Amino acid sequence: MKKTDKKRHSTSASNAQDSQRLDTWLWAARFFKTRQLASTAIDGGKIELNGQAVTKRGKSVRPGDRLTIGKAGMRFVVDVEALNPKRGPASEAALLYRETPESIEKRRLVAEQQRAERELNPHHKPAKQARALLRALRGKSF
C-alpha cells in the first residue's frame, strides 16, 4: 500500500466514525426493535433530522443533530450525543442521545391524557361483580 493510500484510508475511517446511518442509529439507540422497523418509520415520514423530513434510510447522523421521532402516538425530540454501530444494552443505548425537557413534558402529558381516556372508556368487559352492580342500578334483577 502506498503512503497516499494509507492517508486516504485513514481519512475514510475517521469519516466513518464521524457519522452513522440513520436507520442503524435508531436501532442501536433502541427506538426500534429492528432495523427494518426503523426503515419503515423513515419511509413513512415519522422521522425528522434537524427540522427536515427524512426520506432516505442511509441519511448520515452526527453528534449534535436533533431528531424528532414519531412512534406509537408519541413524539420524541432528542439530541444525538454519540454513535454506536452495534446494538447494546439499554444502559449503553441511553448514552447515545439526550431527550429535550420539552419533549419529556409533552410525552408525560399525552400519557396522562391517554390513561384518563382509558379509565373513562374501558375496552374490556366489566367483572362479574361490576356487572351485577350495573344490573341493580338499572333496576333489572336477572
List keywords for this structure.
18% strand, alpha+beta, 7 strands, 6 helices, Structural Genomics Hypothetical 15.5 Kd Protein In mrcA-pckA Intergenic Region, Chain A, single chain
Describe this structure in words.
It is a single chain. This protein is of the alpha+beta class. It has two domains: 3-99, Roll (Structural Genomics Hypothetical 15.5 Kd Protein In mrcA-pckA Intergenic Region, Chain A), CATH 3.10.290; 101-142. It is built from six helices and seven strands; from the N terminus they run H-E-H-H-E-E-E-E-E-H-E-H-H. Strand 2 (47-49) and strand 3 (52-53) form a beta hairpin. Helix 2 (22-28) packs across helix 3 (35-43). The longest helix has 20 residues, at 101-120. It is elongated. The termini are far apart. 16% of the residues are buried. Residues 4-16 have low confidence and may be disordered.
Short synopsis of the structure:
This protein is α+β, with helices and mostly antiparallel strands and 142 residues long. It is built from 6 helices and 7 strands.
